[in-house]
Amino acid sequence: MGMTQHAEPAVTTPPAPGPKETDGRTAQRPLALRLLARPDIGVFLGAMAVWVFFLITAPPVRDGSSMANILYQSSTIGIMALPVALLMIGGEFDLSSGVAVITSALTASMLAYQLTLNVWAGVIAALVVSLAIGFLNGWLVVKTGLPSFLITLGTFLILQGVNLAVTKLVTGNVATDDISTMDGFAGAKKVFASSFEIGGVQVKITIVYWLVFAAIATWVLLRTKYGNWIFAVGGNKDSARAVGVPVTFTKISLFMLVGFGAWFVGMHNLFSFNTVQSGEGVGQELIYISAAVIGGCLLTGGAGSAIGPVFGAFMFGMVQQGIVYAGWNPDWFKAFLGVMLLGAVLINLWVSRTATRR
């Protein structure tokens, strides 16, 4: 008699419930860490700390006119720091931005004065020259594939030499002639270098332009296709090109935005002081880049904001004027800036690692 085996039905038991797996996109991190992940939070806290420090150590800072002066100094840095920051988010540098400001002012001043034209003709010509310099920088970077550091370092040296040599050749001096009596000067001064009163305090128009430009830049970065292109080309230009991002247009236009900023600040300098010293501007490019870095823009590109550089520029203006109001030796200004820059880089690194830690 054969024996039959009956297979018992397998009994399956459901696995014990364990912790739900999540990935980095769905994990809910604490609010504090999510805030720290924003590039502009650290610089905001730093700016507030510097402000409180000088409120305590430099009593004149508490006066409304002193704060207006601090904001004015910040705005002259911040207007240029904004396009420089956008360019850095796009993965590039511009070391010629400081002397380009002076080139713009010299062009407008000498063209109008030497040819006896309305100063607005010089203003328009300076805009064309500034945009052309930005276009040339961007075109060379894109077409040659060389680092923008090298390309714009060459432009920096060229403009520095041209500023001095052409000014001496045309005017016989290292400074341009006074244009305050020329046609159109009053109207141009009202646009670029006027002031208005709030509560008995004179406020420079550049502060308004600074905040308006910051709002526009923030909207562009966060709400437009062009803003997406900036982040994309800064993150990985080859991948960006593969998905249809116009890399050449984006990079060249970013350099031209820096040119526009240089023109605007150059016009402010010209119509504030009526004349221009041809040797100025050297070193300012480092101030603009530092304000952007302190504001959370990565040196490697692909990350940053437009709000961060606003607070970065405010920190520079606060330190620059706060040292004077505190009665300290102003020679310490650059040392303070170096400490601020190094501290900001280290804090941004710590914040980034803390915010992304599981």
Description:
This protein has 14 helices and two strands; from the N terminus they run αααααααββααααααα. The protein is mainly alpha-helical. Strands 1-2 form a two-stranded antiparallel ribbon. Helix 4 crosses helix 11.
List the helices and strands and how they pair.
Layout: H1 31-36, H2 41-57, H3 64-89, H4 97-114, H5 119-144, H6 148-171, H7 185-192, E1 195-198, E2 201-204, H8 205-223, H9 225-235, H10 237-242, H11 247-273, H12 284-294, H13 307-325, H14 333-356
> What's the β-strand tally?
2
Lateral strand order in the biggest sheet: 1-2
Strand content: under 5%
Helix content: 55-70%
Number of helices: 14
- Overall residue-averaged pLDDT value: 85
Describe the biggest sheet? 2 strands, antiparallel
Q: What is the string of helix and strand elements?
A: HHHHHHHEEHHHHHHH
Shape: globular
Compact description:
It contains 14 helices and 2 strands.
Q: Which features does this protein show?
A:
mainly alpha, 358 residues, 2% strand, 14 helices, single chain
